[in-house]
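Folding Task

Wanted — backbone structure
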Amino acid sequence: MDNKKKTILVTASAKRLGKFIATDLVKRGWKVAIHYYKSKTSAEETADYLSKVGGSVSIHQADLSRKNDIEKLVKEIKAQDSTWVGLINNAGYFSYDNGTSFQAENLQNHMSVNFTAPTLLTQALAKYTMKLKKQKKDSQGFVVNILDAKIFGLNPDYYTYTLSKQAMYGLTKMSALSYASCLRVNGIAPGITLLAPGQNQKDFEKSHKKNLLKSSSTVDEILYSIQHIISSKSMTGHVTLLDGGAHLAPPRRDVGL
């Protein structure tokens, strides 16, 4: 089947890393469903650019903390005139707290976007793919979870965020096991890759080098890793760690602080 007849849903793909992922997939011939929450203008600009370079894209708004929005998003993807084959769980909620200061609301916000939504979207793709198999259609889906290298080199900062990413790591393993008949599920755990909102270039370069190799992950490495996962038909339940070795000698505090 032509890749343009196969849809990959990339959550939070209107800007930043998600935009790079969506752009790379389009250039490789895939149809991409661009998801956004509040960045409507960015989503439309990204979709317009990708369409002009010959890409096949669609845009979808959803608040991933709301079950009804997730269900609406799934319904829109399934209604397209292409086969839904891939899911890249890139969306993330990220807010500072620690073990003493965190509030239940912040825990809920992190878990709903970083864990519950990927869990529900993965289940939806699994059910969709199972249905295709019952119709005697040769189909295997794939999921790529964007994790965080921090969970392999812990420090106490960003407490509830870290808990949610650890849960997502567990999801990667459990869903690979549970949906092996229809999905391959893998993850990528990058280190410092892009400037954080409000961060200047000097501070970014300093934090990017706080690891054994003096260089953390790059966008190109993440894109390469995604392609490796997509093309490696025997790979499932695996997490690719890209952090310059920081997990081997983790800092006592988060590098961004």
The longest strand covers residues 183-190. The chain has a mean pLDDT of 93. The CA atoms of residues 98 and 159 lie 5 Å apart.
